[in-house]
Amino acid sequence: MNPLKFSPSRSFAAASAGVLGLLPAIASAHPGHYHPPGEEDEFDAFTAGLLHPATGMDHLLLAVAAGWLIFSFPKAKAALPSAFLAALAIGAWTGRGLQGGAFLEIALSCTLLAAGAAVLIGRYLKAAPLAVALCLAGAVHGFAHGAEAAAGAPFLPYATGFILGTGMLVAVGVLLHAATSRLRQPLVPRIAGAALLAAGTASLIHAI
C-alpha cells in the first residue's frame, strides 16, 4: 500500500472545504447581532459577502468549476486562482451600485456554459486561454456581486467576504478534481461538464 503524499494545495483545499461547511455556524455565532435593513455594520456585510457565493447556484457552480479546471495546471495553481479572484474584485468594484438586469443574467449563464465546455474538453485546454476565460468569468460574477450588494452596507467588508467565500469554493473544486482523478474514470469529467452545460442552459432559458 502506497502512503498518502502530503500536498499543501490539497491540504489547503481540504481545510477550505471544512471551513465552508462551518459557514452557517459562523454566521449565527454572533448572538443578538441584528441591524435593520440599511443599517448593517461591517460584520453583517462581511457575513453576507462570505455566504453570498454559496447561496447563488450560478456563483457556486462557476467557482467550483474554476477550481476543477485550475487543478489541471499544476504549474499555474497560484497564478490562475489569483487572476480569477483579482478579476472578481475588479468586476465587483465596477458593478457597485449598478443594476445588471437580464443582460447580466444571460452573461452569468454563458459563463456556466463556457465552464461546462471547458471541463468536457479538459486535457486539450491551454493555460493562457484558460486564464483569459477565468478572468472574464470572474469579472462577470464580480460585477453581479457588486450589483447585488445591499444598499447602505459597508462595501469593503462585503467584498472581502465574497472573495474569501469564492476562494474557498475554488479550493473545493480543486479538492474534488484531486479526489476524482484517483478513480481514473473518463466518465467523471464528462458528467461534470454535462451537468454544468445543463445548468447553464436552464439558467439561460430562465434569463431569456
Written description of the protein model:
Mean pLDDT is 84; it is low at 1-6, 11-20 and 25-33. Helix 4 runs antiparallel to helix 7. This protein is mainly alpha-helical and 208 residues long. The longest helix is centred in the C-terminal third of the chain and has 27 residues, at 155-181. It has helices at 8-21, 23-27, 42-55, 57-70, 79-95, 101-121, 127-147, 155-181, 187-207.
Provide a quick synopsis of the model.
The protein has 208 residues and is mainly alpha-helical.
Structural class: mainly alpha
Assembly of the depicted chains: single chain
Query: How far apart are the termini?
Result: 54 Å
Shape by Cα distribution: globular
Average pLDDT across residues? 84
Main sheet overview: none
**Which percent bin holds the helix content?**
over 70%
Q: What is the gyration radius calculated from CA atoms?
A: 17 Å
Tally of DSSP β-strands: 0
Order of secondary-structure elements: HHHHHHHHH
Strand content: under 5%
Total count of helical runs of at least 4 residues: 9
Q: Which stretches are low in confidence, meaning pLDDT under 50 for 5 or more residues running?
A: 1-6, 11-20, 25-33
